[in-house]
From TrEMBL:
InterPro entries in alphabetical order: FAD-bd (IPR002938), FAD/NAD-bd_sf (IPR036188), RIFMO-like (IPR050641)
Cofactor (UniProt): FAD
Record bears the keyword Metal-binding: no
Database matches in SUPFAM superfamilies: FAD/NAD(P)-binding domain (SSF51905)
Gene3D superfamilies registered for this protein in UniProt: 3.40.30.120, D-Amino Acid Oxidase, subunit A, domain 2, FAD/NAD(P)-binding domain
Keywords for this protein: FAD, Flavoprotein
Residues covered by the FAD-binding domain: 15-361
Name of the molecule in the record: 2-polyprenyl-6-methoxyphenol hydroxylase-like FAD-dependent oxidoreductase
Organism name: Hydrogenophaga laconesensis
Organism superkingdom: Bacteria
Length: 545
């Protein structure tokens, strides 16, 4: 095959366009993002089948927008192991799950700002859906049961050496780019020389997977909940966390344990009973350990090599940020790689992957996960119902209100990105924002019913989309001309400036392939120069005249 890079040079010797090392949700999501755009890729995944360890279960409304775009939403919802009414809602309890002090965790409060509802199912079920979707796309090849042993790059491309696990197969894959989606111990990250910054919380954690119908009966008092956090003073802000794998029998649990804990020297059943506040039947299926730490790579790109998901960032499984952040990496990186390979995206666009995604995850660690641990620790040190019940109750209610604010404040955005319209705020990309219906450059576009009767998310094109709300025909044509001149894929959606669409507060909205706003104008007829500059900024390179 012949692949075009962003300089237009032909590389006939490539086996594929992109080699993706790691076929978990992030790697498979990236492959689908590329494959749907006609970009050839090879996924190298060490496990022939998804591993049956329940993790990464909470899929947010935003993540489900990805599955909608990837043509896999319906199948994913059909694969769920818990009835829809359980959603991804949970609760936090003080002392024990069956104690008198608890509050609800309401992630569904931001549903109006997204096109799709949230979902919950084990990661291995998600992976199975993604594998089936990838198999339907001819541009994607998969090597299941293979692993990478080396990654080398030069000015023209990347060579990934792979070997069959337990077999004699050996291959060298030559591609324009390689992406490491191979987890926290990423070989791709190591071989490419990307360093990382770690914050160790000096906590040994246990992961338990167990069967218990008795626990399901005990927790029927909390209908519609899927996960449960327990706060105890001795844990100093760290949780004991229960999650449903299915409805009725299978659970997972993680929590701090004393240093040196092994499968043989600790009474895990008693630990679970104490957290719940009552005895119940337990049949353990898995007991594993991990260290609680944060990791953020110091860059997400090194030449022709990129990293995504846990290879780029990892953290304790608090708040369901991990798999959702990784899938957002895939959505962000995929269209930019495709733009480069098709010749209309430049180096500035590729660099924007790091410029957008890395500070967002740094903010996620700092402003949400670590802050949550610190806030809970301070609460536990200050308030004790055994000492002052009334003061504890008042503080507990205030804490619940603060949790609602956190749900609304988690709004990852790319304000200040080099490839979105500047707004003069001085703010850089961050996980802290606010959910609004107005169309803002650098922010996710909220859904809206259009005058045609469909939702804007049902009308989007695979490339850029120009939403024209009673804009002048000359302005719309100027956008079409600018896009055509540089081979930028553009779909124009024209609609009336009325109803929900009027909430966008703009007549022209240029939407990126990942559903983030690149540029807006409240003028019905901006100048051709303004339009050209807006498109140039969005793709990171000059528009041909």
């Amino acid at each position: 095959m012949s692949t075009q890079d962003n300089n237009g040079a032909a590389h006939a010797a490539f086996d594929t366009d992109v080699v993706i090392v790691g076929g978990g949700p992030v790697g498979m999501g990236l492959a689908i993002e590329l494959g749907q755009r006609g970009i050839r890729c090879v996924v190298v995944e060490r496990y022939p089948q998804p591993q049956p360890i329940p993790k990464g279960q909470n899929l947010t409304q935003r993540t489900m927008e990805h599955f909608h775009a990837w043509g896999a939403e319906k199948e994913l919802r059909a694969a769920r192991t818990i009835p829809p009414e359980y959603g991804i809602g949970g609760l936090t309890a003080y002392g024990t799950l069956l104690g008198p002090h608890y509050d609800w965790l309401q992630r569904d409060l931001v549903k109006p700002y997204y096109f799709t509802a949230n979902e919950r199912l084990p990661q291995y079920a998600t992976e199975a859906v993604l594998r089936r979707r990838a198999a339907s796309l001819p541009a994607i090849d998969t090597l299941y049961g293979w692993e990478a042993g080396d990654v080398q790059q030069d000015a023209d491309g990347v060579t990934v050496s792979v070997a069959e696990r337990g077999g004699s197969g050996r291959r060298q894959l030559r591609a324009a780019y390689a992406v490491g989606c191979d987890g926290a111990r990423s070989l791709v990250r190591e071989k490419s020389g990307i360093t990382q910054s770690k914050t160790d919380h000096d906590r040994m954690m246990v992961l338990l997977v167990f069967k218990s119908e008795g626990l399901h009966e005990l927790l029927k008092c909390y209908p519609g909940k899927s996960y449960y956090n327990v706060l105890q003073p001795g844990l100093k802000g760290y949780w004991k966390f229960f999650g449903r794998v299915d409805l009725g029998s299978t659970w997972f649990f993680h929590a701090p344990v004393p240093p040196g804990t092994t499968k043989e020297n600790f009474d895990f059943a008693a630990y679970l009973h104490e957290a719940v506040g009552a005895p119940f039947d337990i049949a353990f299926e898995h007991i594993g350990f991990w260290d609680l730490r944060f990791m953020l790579a110091n860059r997400y790109r090194q030449g022709r090599v990129f990293i995504a998901g846990d290879a780029a960032h990892s953290h304790p499984p608090y708040g369901g940020y991990g798999v959702n952040s990784g899938l957002e990496d895939a959505r962000n990186l995929g269209w930019k790689l495709a733009a480069s390979l098709k010749g209309w995206g430049g180096e500035r666009l590729l660099d924007s992957y790091d410029a957008e995604r890395r500070p967002v995850f740094g903010s996620t660690i700092r402003d949400f996960i670590a802050k949550s641990i610190e806030t809970d620790r301070a609460f536990l040190e200050t308030h004790d119902p055994a000492v002052d019940q009334a003061r504890f109750d008042q503080a507990w209610q205030a804490r619940a209100k603060g949790a609602v604010g956190e749900v609304h404040a988690f709004e990852p955005n790319y304000e200040g990105s080099p490839v979105v319209q500047p707004n003069g705020s001085g703010q850089g990309p961050s996980a802290v924002g606010s959910h609004q219906f107005i169309a803002r450059a650098g922010h996710h576009l909220a859904p809206a019913a259009l005058s045609s009767g469909c939702n804007v998310y049902e009308a989007l094109g695979p490339g850029f989309t120009l939403l024209a709300l009673e804009a002048s025909p000359d302005a719309v044509q100027a956008f079409r001309d600018a896009a055509t001149a540089s081979a930028v894929p553009l779909k124009v959606v024209e609609a009336a400036l009325e109803g929900e669409a009027a909430r966008y507060g703009a007549r022209l909205v240029l939407l990126r392939p990942d559903n983030f706003v690149a540029w807006t104008s409240d003028s019905a007829g901006p100048t051709a120069e303004n339009i050209r500059e807006g498109l140039e900024n969005a793709i990171g390179s000059a528009v041909n005249r």
